[in-house]
Amino acid sequence: MPQQPATNQANDLFLWRLVLNNVPLVLFLALAVAGMMALYIFLSPQATSPVQAAHSSPDMHTALAAPIMKPMASRLVAQRFAQSPPPMRIGIIAGHLNNDPGAVCADGLTEVQVNLDITLRVAEQLRAEGVRVMVLGEFDPRLAGYTADALISIHADSCVYYNDEATGYKISPSPYTDSTTLYDCLVAGYEAATNLPFHANTITPHMTDYHAFREIGLGTPAVIIETGFMNLDRELLTTNANIPAAGIADGLFCFLRDSS
Fold it and tell me: I need a labelling partner for 246 at 20 to 30 A (CA). Which of 20, 65, 183, 218 fits?
């Protein structure tokens, strides 16, 4: 027991030495505590009672939302734009292409030559207006189940002279898909461009039940056109082939406008 006061003195001396040796640390801690308390007092809401304190302390959702919300006029904001329609697609069969020459004239002019020339002219006019065009052969394997906005098969009539009435064009629509609008537009466009008469009495079953009508996908409007007779209408179909091509293109543009 007589040694206890000496022990206490030793402990006190140790504590003082510890404090004196760490004065910078002690000052730092004291200043840090004082700064934290001052910051807390400065940022704390003023409240004189527990009820006021409760009302002045926002919950988590209010605290998170308040800084980013501001009054806005109540109105609808259009953020979606109408999508552009997909490119229109037209299939054009150049009659007899990659199969046979078709009708042949005495001087060697073949129907397939006439058909292909007009087909390429039509395709050029359509593409110039942004229409996607696929040129197809007569029995093209791509016809199986083919779908597009429309399909047209371009042919010409015989080179034989029958009589002075063997002039004019004819068009036959598909009986498998409603092709009325396509048919009406092509009749109007072609007749206006060429001034040829409609030669209805020479439309054959090969036109009304044209093989491609049965091969393409249901829902694709389709027609077959014979642009004129290669005898009496020859100059129009060859030298002035741009005229029948424009008539066909006008008819197709009419159909695309009316069906869109």
Answer: 218
